């Protein structure tokens, strides 16, 4: 696949739909799902740009752009007092992963400020809510676990969130609970083991799905680079873990 040609095709579509977020007449109810759909296009655009040039600035700019659509939706929903909209929840994971992966912590702080705090039973999954909360909080609080104990209120709250995550994920196919526990317990060795398991499980899932998926540019991008893996490494680096190496789906040129 020619990455430049694929990126150009996606770029036109992503830019066109992103205009809706500056249209005052566009219904806020449609912006929630549109933010996620168009965000996926910007995410793919960034990955393809990285693959074509080996320059991670292409990836980082587009990941920030992806998440900015989610922020515009949250701003408009709040301005119009439509916090009961289906997508007005914390646990829409992808924009959080985008901003962690590109290390745009100022925009992540804005996303946290705009997002609701409490779990919404009818509008999000418990595991998405817990995972989002833990990663976002740790990403925004550098070294939070290094000199703290469970008695620190903020950290104690995250351990309670972790317990909810572990109880919900009776079969954690992507090692998310194990990764979060290692981060909260400041255990670099356990994190490394869980991260390797995460990569292996993700690669296996990609291979299993290939037979039933069309070979689109967006899917090629998703199979090439894991934004979630990049986000996990970014949080681990914030916690002081040293994992400076090439990983499948997460090469050094993207970190």
Structural topology:
Elements: H1 3-18, H2 28-53, H3 56-79, H4 93-101, H5 105-114, H6 126-140, H7 153-168, H8 176-184, H9 188-210, H10 217-224, H11 227-238
Helix pairs in contact: 1-2, 2-3, 2-10, 3-4, 3-5, 4-6, 4-11, 6-7, 6-8, 7-8, 8-9
Write a short abstract of this structure:
The protein is mainly α.
What can you see in these coordinates?
66% of the residues lie in helices and 0% in strands. The chain has helices at residues 3-18, 28-53, 56-79, 93-101, 105-114, 126-140, 153-168, 176-184, 188-210, 217-224, 227-238. With 255 residues, it is mainly alpha-helical. It has 11 helices and no strands.
Number of alpha- plus pi-helical segments: 11
Question: In angstroms, what is the radius of gyration?
Answer: 18 Å
Task: Give the beta-strand count.
Answer: 0
Q: How much strand?
A: under 5%
SSE series: HHHHHHHHHHH
Largest sheet: none
Q: Helicity range of the residues? A: 55-70%
Structural class based on helices, strands and sheet pairing: mainly alpha
Shape: globular
Taking pLDDT < 50 over at least 5 consecutive residues as the criterion, the unreliable ranges are none
* Mean pLDDT across every amino acid position: 91
- Alpha-carbon distance between the two ends: 23 Å
């Amino acid at each position: 696949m020619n990455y430049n040609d694929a990126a150009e095709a996606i770029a036109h579509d992503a830019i066109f739909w992103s205009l809706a977020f500056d249209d005052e007449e566009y219904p806020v109810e449609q912006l929630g799902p549109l933010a996620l759909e168009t965000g996926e296009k910007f995410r793919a655009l960034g990955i393809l740009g990285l693959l074509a040039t080996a320059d991670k600035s292409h990836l980082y700019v587009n990941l920030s752009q992806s998440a900015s659509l989610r922020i515009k939706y949250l701003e408009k929903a709040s301005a119009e007092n439509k916090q009961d909209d289906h997508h007005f929840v914390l646990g829409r994971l992808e924009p959080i992963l985008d901003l962690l992966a590109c290390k745009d912590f100022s925009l992540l702080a804005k996303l946290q400020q705009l997002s609701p705090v409490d779990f919404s039973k009818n509008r999000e999954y418990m595991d998405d809510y817990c995972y989002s909360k833990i990663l976002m909080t740790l990403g925004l609080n550098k070294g939070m676990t290094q000199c703290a104990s469970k008695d620190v209120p903020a950290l104690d709250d995250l351990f309670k969130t972790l317990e909810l995550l572990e109880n919900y994920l009776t079969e954690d196919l992507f090692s998310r609970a194990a990764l979060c526990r290692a981060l909260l317990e400041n255990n670099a060795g356990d994190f490394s083991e869980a991260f390797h398991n995460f990569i292996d499980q993700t690669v296996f899932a990609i291979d299993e799905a290939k037979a039933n998926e069309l070979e689109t540019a967006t899917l090629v991008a998703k199979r090439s680079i894991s934004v979630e893996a990049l986000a996990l490494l970014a949080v681990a680096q914030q916690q002081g873990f040293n994992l400076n190496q090439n990983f499948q789906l997460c090469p050094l040129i993207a970190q």
